[in-house]
Specification:
539 residues; mainly alpha; two-stranded antiparallel sheet; 24 helices; 67% helix; disordered N terminus; disordered C terminus; AA/rel_permease1; transmembrane helix; transport; transmembrane
Length: 539
């Protein structure tokens, strides 16, 4: 543990040497411990964010039974994904994460293609999860402002609050990791001690507690808009149940942040994979405790589901604590969600920085601020794209759940592609210190099958009937990105995108890879490189 808290020069040297083997210079400040690495993923997963913002969705799409049992099932299968990711990040600890892994694990002739496709799905998921978290925070602020006041929440006001939150996250992220470390420690306390105290408070204060049967065996279908029936009638209860696991699956996303921060983490080959696994495992336990606490403390199910406030968690707190107590506890939730959005943008900007460094994005975004050692341009890009993705909320009643579906699909596809590539081409997978050995391939198989399943499920319609207001635009957004990624590859990107650039070797040969993204290709066409700089980094 001493190495993580006060790493010796030899540990730091090993990290930088490993990064150099992968072809990169140490540009970002490396001073994060295992606790900090875990804390960022734990904060982005933010159990209180996913559970609170999608609690209404869960109650109306399957009810308490699907929410509670679904949480257990989702966490079980998600841990397979986390294990597969941890094994890969141990071998390839870079800020690029999934798109870099895809390039390294694929054969030389397919390396750039897999890297390009994975990178764009990861970028989509990163942007959408930032949108989901921060827009959810804006909605919570709007809802809380209505308690005991004449304030009326509107879509326009919520978008305004959302823009202000994104701006605050961008400004704070611009100060670099040295400042973020302190907020990270606060976030860990809020999401562990704070959430535990919150759950204990509502359990001890609630006048009425639901029965175990009501929490674990109650099915409710509120997916039909009057006079139309719900999907349990039009399709089947199973349809509603599989759609209902979105709350749990969206909550347990973002743990790739431990990988994106590996270039800023000491002893990354061990601490980054442990950060991935710890964030999923701890979130699963704390999340289950919080979820069942809320479900046991619902005072009247019908009133809570149809609350005029529009937020069942807020309604439950009002029923238990009254208006003032509810405002106090909602403030705690909002602060937790704010921290989650902050660190989601941290992870998002690092992924974009890595992708730009390898020419997946314009070289304009490769700049690291000399004073704060932070990628300020990709931070601003992350905020701008997250704002754009929330604009449909002005005219859609399912915009928020669609954003969470997009985040879940985009991220998990980018998690699954490297795992699948490693499964198909095992000879290219040179394991790091975290090695699953004989269990590696079975775990990877389960992870890939599960990701395929949820990708299909979360594209399905959520409300009946399907119209312009209730359309799940997830397949549209995912389809646009897929069309862009595949179309751009075959039309022009395949002519110049070579996958991860071996920056150090290129610079030693006088190739200005940052200033001129076409320079490497010119050198390679002229026969001045060995052909390895832009294709594969040796493991």
């Amino acid at each position: 543990m001493d190495h993580e808290l006060d790493p010796t020069p030899s540990i730091k040297g090993q990290d930088e040497d490993r990064l150099a083997e992968l072809g990169y210079k140490q540009e970002l400040t490396r001073n994060w411990s295992l606790l900090h690495n875990f804390g960022v993923s734990f904060s982005i997963i933010s159990i209180i964010t996913g559970i609170t913002t999608l609690f209404e969705y869960g109650l109306s799409t399957g009810g308490p039974g699907v929410m509670s049992v679904g949480w257990i099932v989702v966490c079980f299968f998600t841990f397979f994904v986390a294990l597969g990711m941890a094994e890969i990040v141990s071998a390839i600890p870079t800020s690029g994460g999934p798109y870099f892994w895809a390039a390294i694990l694929a054969p030389n002739d397919k390396s750039a293609f897999y890297s390009w496709i994975t990178g764009w799905f990861n970028l989509l998921g990163q942007v959408a999860v930032t949108t989901g978290i921060t827009f959810g925070c804006a909605e919570l602020i709007s809802t809380t402002a209505t308690i005991g006041t004449s304030y009326a929440a509107t879509a326009g006001k919520t978008i305004g609050i959302y823009a202000a939150l994104l701006t605050s996250h961008a400004i704070i992220n611009s100060f670099g990791v040295s400042f973020l470390r302190y907020l990270n420690n606060t976030s860990i306390l809020l999401h562990s001690v704070g959430v535990t105290c919150f759950a204990i408070a509502i359990l001890s204060k609630a006048p009425i507690h639901q029965s175990a049967k009501a929490v674990f065996a109650t099915f409710y279908d509120g997916t039909g808009e009057t006079p139309s029936p719900g999907w349990s009638v039009r399709a089947s209860p199973a349809y509603v149940a599989v759609c209902g696991i979105l709350m749990a699956q969206y909550t347990i996303t973002g743990f790739d942040a431990s990988a994106h921060l590996s270039e800023e983490t000491n002893n990354a080959a061990w601490n980054a994979p442990l950060g991935v696994l710890m964030s999923v495992g701890v979130s699963a336990v704390f999340g289950f405790f919080l979820l069942v606490s809320l479900l046991f403390c619902i005072q009247d199910f019908a009133t809570t589901v149809d609350s005029s406030i529009g937020q069942p968690v807020t309604q439950t707190l009002i029923d238990i604590f009254g208006n003032k107590g509810a405002i106090a506890l909602m403030t705690l939730i909002i602060v937790c969600v704010w921290h989650a959005g902050l660190f989601s943008m941290t992870s998002n900007s690092r992924m974009m920085f890595g992708f730009a460094r390898d020419h997946g994005l314009p070289p304009f975004f490769t700049t690291v601020d000399a004073r704060f050692q932070a990628p300020i341009r990709t931070i601003c890009l992350a905020a701008f794209l997250a704002f754009l993705l929330a604009i449909p909320s002005l005219g859609s009643s399912v915009a928020f759940s669609a954003a969470t579906s997009i985040a879940t699909i985009g991220l998990y596809l980018s998690y699954g592609l490297p795992i699948l590539i490693g499964l198909i081409y095992p000879a290219n997978f040179k394991k790091g210190p975290f090695n699953l050995r004989a269990a590696s391939r079975p775990i990877a198989t389960v992870a890939c099958l599960y990701i395929g399943f949820i990708t299909i499920v979360f594209c399905l319609p959520e409300l009946n009937p399907v119209n312009s207001q209730t359309l799940n635009y997830t397949p549209v957004a995912v389809g646009i990105v897929a069309l862009w990624a595949f179309g751009s590859w075959f039309l022009w990107a395949r002519k110049w995108f070579t996958g991860p650039i071996r920056q150090i070797e290129a610079e030693r040969m006088g190739i200005p890879v940052v200033e001129d993204p076409g320079a490497f290709d010119e050198y390679e066409r002229d026969g001045k490189t060995d052909g390895d700089i832009g294709i594969k980094a040796p493991l």
